[in-house]
Amino acid sequence: MVLEALGSAILGAILAWAAHRRLAHRLPDRRLVLSTGVVGALFGAFLTHSALGPGHLPLILIGAVAVGAASLSLLLRPVGRLRRRSAAV
């Protein structure tokens, strides 16, 4: 269990670092991105461990990375400005 938590936290931090390095112009502050990646991966490991049970370390780490990536994707901002159209024509 400790190895799962430590491995998922490390993978979440690496994923968040890579996302911030590649998409820094579309993400908020680095501290928020790193903490979101780690917490998302830990939650993913918890969720996958609860679903599969102990003894499935590779699958649990894959689940941790998937949930960490999904939580990081929620922080992305749009590339361009949003164009709002007037309701009155």
TrEMBL record:
Keywords: Membrane, Transmembrane, Transmembrane helix. It comes from the Bacteria. The chain crosses the membrane at residues 6-24, 31-51, 57-76. The keyword Membrane applies. This is Integral membrane protein. It comes from Streptomyces minutiscleroticus. The lineage of its organism: Bacteria, Bacillati, Actinomycetota, Actinomycetes, Kitasatosporales.
